[in-house]
């Protein structure tokens, strides 16, 4: 997960730098920043706040909020690895009363939001014209493959976690699974 995060941060910092350089010109530094990020046929003036950016920001914020609620609900039971501890108990409150794996729901929302911001109209990747190049097509392809891998991981991980929790908690898990039948998306899956 480190490489994609670094890539997202790098693009975000470049976009922030372009916005700053465009709005607060201070040659020669800002000229260099803008000429590095934009060729002569593109301009930083195309970087704009728009409904797509706001939607992406909302999705990212909602995903982060859901994940923070999950961390809070799980407390010391939270791990990045699938494990059952000696003092483990089944957490069924908070976001776990809506879907069985809300942290993955939050991650997916944040992932979708970040991609909406990065690839949407008014973004650096669009405004600079890079997405219209062969490199841009590779970037789009890599993002699509990354999204598919994440979706596969989330779905397979929910199956594995459900199996482990069912084995550990038995009837208690069965009752909770009946009350909370959906793994990731209420009313859907």
Automatic annotation (TrEMBL):
Coiled coil: none
Membrane disposition: Multi-pass membrane protein
GO CC terms of this entry: endoplasmic reticulum membrane
Subcellular location as annotated: Endoplasmic reticulum membrane; Membrane
Pfam family for this entry, one: ICMT
Keyword set, alphabetical order: Endoplasmic reticulum, Membrane, Methyltransferase, S-adenosyl-L-methionine, Transferase, Transmembrane, Transmembrane helix
Swiss-Prot/TrEMBL GO biological process terms: methylation
TM ranges: 6-24, 103-123, 135-155
Main location (coarse class): endoplasmic reticulum
Stored InterPro entries: ICMT_MeTrfase
An example molecular function term from Gene Ontology annotations: protein C-terminal S-isoprenylcysteine carboxyl O-methyltransferase activity
Enzyme Commission (EC) number: 2.1.1.100
Taxonomic superkingdom: Eukaryota
This protein's record includes keyword Oxidoreductase: no
Catalytic reaction equation(s): [protein]-C-terminal S-[(2E,6E)-farnesyl]-L-cysteine + S-adenosyl-L-methionine = [protein]-C-terminal S-[(2E,6E)-farnesyl]-L-cysteine methyl ester + S-adenosyl-L-homocysteine
Family as reported in the entry's similarity comment: Belongs to the class VI-like SAM-binding methyltransferase superfamily. Isoprenylcysteine carboxyl methyltransferase family.
Alphabetical list of PANTHER family matching this protein: PROTEIN-S ISOPRENYLCYSTEINE O-METHYLTRANSFERASE, PROTEIN-S-ISOPRENYLCYSTEINE O-METHYLTRANSFERASE
Protein name: Protein-S-isoprenylcysteine O-methyltransferase
The organism of origin for this protein: Heliocybe sulcata
């Amino acid at each position: 997960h480190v490489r994609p995060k670094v890539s997202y941060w790098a693009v975000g910092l470049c976009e922030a730098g372009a916005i700053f350089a465009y709005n607060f010109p201070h040659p020669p530094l800002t000229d260099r920043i803008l000429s590095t990020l934009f060729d002569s046929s593109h301009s930083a003036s195309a970087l704009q706040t728009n409904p797509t950016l706001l939607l992406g920001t909302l999705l990212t914020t909602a995903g982060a909020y859901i994940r923070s609620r999950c961390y809070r609900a799980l407390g010391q039971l939270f791990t990045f690895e699938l494990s059952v501890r000696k003092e483990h108990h089944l957490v069924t409150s908070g976001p776990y009363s809506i879907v069985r794996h809300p942290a993955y729901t939050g991650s997916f929302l944040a992932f979708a939001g970040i991609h909406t911001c990065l690839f949407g109209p008014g973004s650096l990747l669009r405004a600079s014209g890079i997405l219209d190049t062969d490199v841009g097509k590779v970037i789009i392809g890599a993002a699509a493959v990354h999204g598919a891998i994440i979706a596969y991981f989330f779905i397979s991980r929910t199956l594995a976690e459900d199996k482990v929790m069912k084995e550990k908690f038995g009837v208690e898990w069965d009752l909770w699974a009946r009350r909370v039948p959906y793994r990731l998306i209420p009313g859907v899956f």
